[in-house]
Write a structure and sequence with these properties.
Pfam families: RadC. This protein is α+β, with helices and mostly antiparallel strands. Helix content is 38%, strand content 16%.
């Protein structure tokens, strides 16, 4: 007879609330989630969570929203706690980014954009506004669209850049479909925006597309 999650966690450790906080790297996914959600001593909750992890071992589903709680048959309060944890991680990355030239921290830029856009179910268009030393002034999600497109108004992008005295931009959007393919519309928009902002002595440093857990850089693709 198989043991329930309340008897033994996925890592073989007992989920009895006696986990050492100083060693989280050794925890299984079930142990970590149980600790975050405060359910280490709740057998029924552990079994429910264990069943979900067995059905869907890819942890990307954890970064959903409250609307997903019904679909996954999990309590809404669990989602709130999980999203609070993700938000804290995003803010740590954000603070690291703000302290230096973002061109020297490409992995942090990617992680930040993944955190902000990677879980969105509709296309979002966002901009990192930078100063003359490539330090972040502000991050804004300017436009929201449908599952496969978003309408971008260049005038708004420029207005915001001028309002906060930005010298450079990193523009970005997501592909909820998970497609890594950059469309002709993506490329055309980038070129049009670059031509427009360069007239105002503002640079576009990159256009990054978030798709299925990765971030594609147009600069690295030779498209900008």
């Amino acid at each position: 007879v198989a043991e329930s999650a309340s008897t033994r966690s996925m890592s073989g450790q007992k989920s009895d609330g006696g986990l050492k906080v100083s060693q989280p790297i050794r925890y299984s996914e079930l142990d970590l989630l149980a600790l975050i959600l405060g359910i280490s001593n709740e057998p029924e909750s552990l079994d429910l969570l264990h069943a979900r992890l067995c059905r869907e071992p890819d942890l990307q589903w954890l970064r959903g929203d409250d609307a997903d709680s019904d679909a996954y048959c999990l309590p809404s309060i669990w989602w709130l706690r999980l999203q609070a944890c993700f938000e804290l991680v995003d803010r740590v990355i954000w603070e690291n980014l703000r302290r230096s030239d973002v061109m020297h921290a490409p992995s942090d830029v990617r992680q930040f954009l993944l955190g902000r856009l990677g879980h969105c179910k509709t296309e979002q268009f966002a901009v990192l506004y930078l100063d003359s030393a490539n330090r972040i002034l502000e991050f804004q999600i300017l436009f929201s669209g449908t599952v496969n497109s978003v309408k971008v108004y260049p005038r708004v992008v420029v207005q915001q850049a001028l309002a906060i005295n930005a010298s450079a931009l990193i523009i970005s959007h997501n592909h909820p479909s998970g497609s890594w393919q950059l469309s002709a519309a993506d490329i055309d928009l980038t070129q049009d925006l670059r031509e427009l902002v360069e007239k105002l002595d503002i640079r576009i440093l990159d256009h990054m597309v978030v798709a299925q857990g990765v971030v594609i850089s147009m600069v690295e693709q030779g498209l900008l």
